[in-house]
Amino acid sequence: MNWLVTGGCGFLGTALVRSLTKEGGHSVRVVDNLAVGEREDLEAVSPFVEVAEVGPMRPGSPVELVVGDILDEELALRVAEGADVIVHLAANTGVMPSIEDPRADCMSNVVGTLNYLEAARHGGAKRFVFASSGGTTIGEAEPPIHEEMVPHPVSPYGASKLAGEGYCSAYYRTFGIETVALRFGNVYGPLSGHKNSVVARFIKRASGGDVLEIYGDGTQTRDFIYVGDLIRAVRLAATVEGVGGEIFQIATSAETTVQELVDRLLPVLAALDIKDVEVRNTEARRGEVRRNYADTSKAERMLGWRSEVGLDEGLRRTVEWFMGSPPGPGSR
Question: Which domain CATH number covers 161?
Fold first, then answer.
């Protein structure tokens, strides 16, 4: 298959590219503006060719990198030509950036998604996999979160991801593009060196001798999913028949408080001689959902998918990756 991956130099993008190239037989084209991920991140998982003059995708090509922004609609049309599947990962990520600049969040997550849906429509891509968000699209609700719940986003980020889901639904029903929206839990794991999500942030701060800050009292809950499990879900969403127009919760169906996460992370850090880590509670953040974990039974039923890596094992793999990585901000 010919895979077009937006945001392919980021955490999830590089994990997907690594999975595809390890299997072999696929052609992969990455589009990334290098605002977060870098060429070196892609190079760490696969050799690639940087392409300036973009032509149609062809089977048997090496991994290609096209440097560009998802808001460039003409570029979207060119890079998608010949793609069998578009995996749209590029986005403004996180609640706080969306609160600080709601318009930029909307442009990236709504207009950027629209550009690549249009590219799928004009370029003939059969399948479009959209990276959405679990708790932020639904908002405050009694968990477990499931696909039939009525969304009430709390943050602009949740609203922009919900809008992306709406456009996916419309393009499936109007134009026949087989869209699949995946509502990710809190993803963690190797290759997350640029991430500022809670697991990556805690590991980087602890390894740098800094204080771990828990926003609020630490009783807020999340559903932490290991990146390898999530990439399996992305690949199934791109290939399983009969799932066009669907939305799936992709998480672990397990509720973990942030305080519990810290309590389980500290022994893993101590085993690698990162000890005496100071933990401090600070002010709660606006726009944060208090409780969130997902019911993933629909994904198990229709995609044949369920998470496999438990939190303790996933944290061990992640910490070991960070300790073996080149030093970066907050890392030793």
Answer: 3.40.50.720
